[in-house]
Amino acid sequence: MTYCVGVKVDAGLVFLSDSRTNAGLDQISTFRKMMVYERPGDRFMVMLSAGNLSISQQVREILQTEAIDTKSNAPPLTIWNATSMFDAARVLGAAVRHVYDQDGEALEKSGFDFNASMIFGGQILGEPPRLFLVYSAGNFIEATRETCFFQIGESKYGKPVLDRMIAPKTPLQQAAKCVLVSMDSTLKSNLTVGLPLDLCVYETNRLETQQIVCVDDRNPYFQMIRNSWGEKLRQGFESIDDPEWGTASSKAPLIAPCRYEPMRKITDPSVKII
Predict the structure, then answer these.
(1) How far is CA 220 from CA 62, 177, 227, in A?
(2) Which one of 3, 26, 52, 87 counts the least CB within 10 Å of its CB?
(3) Quick one: pLDDT band at residue 244, thresholds 50, 70, 90?
(4) Which CATH number does the domain 3-234 belong to among 3.40.50.720, 3.90.380.10, 3.60.20.10, 3.40.50.1010?
(5) pLDDT the model gives residue 249
(6) Cβ(246)–Cβ(254) below 8 Å
(7) What percent of the chain has pLDDT over 90?
């Protein structure tokens, strides 16, 4: 399995992916899930992938050359000549459908679903950064100010911290910290997600980035997160008062309501059950 997350805030974009794939307990491998497409000064794009590895690898490779026929005198549309991230996402969707047309029937006959999803985001000169979630049918949705992050793969373990912390005004480096905490929570709870990680941080209007790093188990910052996050959670949990059962103390009492309570069966000890 895998876990990937992409975040769009006013200050820029953050992408994070793990690198573990598995086809059983004894077939665990490391494959990169992040691909960066960059033309400095003109466009910067990142794709994260989850699902069937053979599908995502094919999509990744043909994305650079896949073209949509514009049915006009203009040249076919690719990610390198698209004038908007929306059109670039259309090209990615076309690449997914191309792989489906080529391999979908064979996969179905072998008992495999056509399972692939992608997070695709970046910026093209002349428009603000944008972020998309692309489904296995090739259709997609775009991040908004109300929903400014996407997850694919094992998303449930790392979602709570993103829900609580990520907002459009979140500073870029805080967003990077948040996705690393989200990944740590996932690593803690799911063995199908594993190191090393790929982290990319993109600042709005730069149209290139040097903030790309591979995070392994020797990375001191990620080691600090793994150690301190669990301890901070424990401290926060212990700072919350324990429940008080109907006492008149200064703490908030845990009082059973009169109207609703669990069904209870009381047995008379003088009655023998045969």
Answers:
(1) 36, 13, 11
(2) 26
(3) confident
(4) 3.60.20.10
(5) 59
(6) yes
(7) 76
| Residue position matching structure tokens 């005198």 | 73
What's this model's pTM, rounded to 2 decimal places? Answer: 0.90
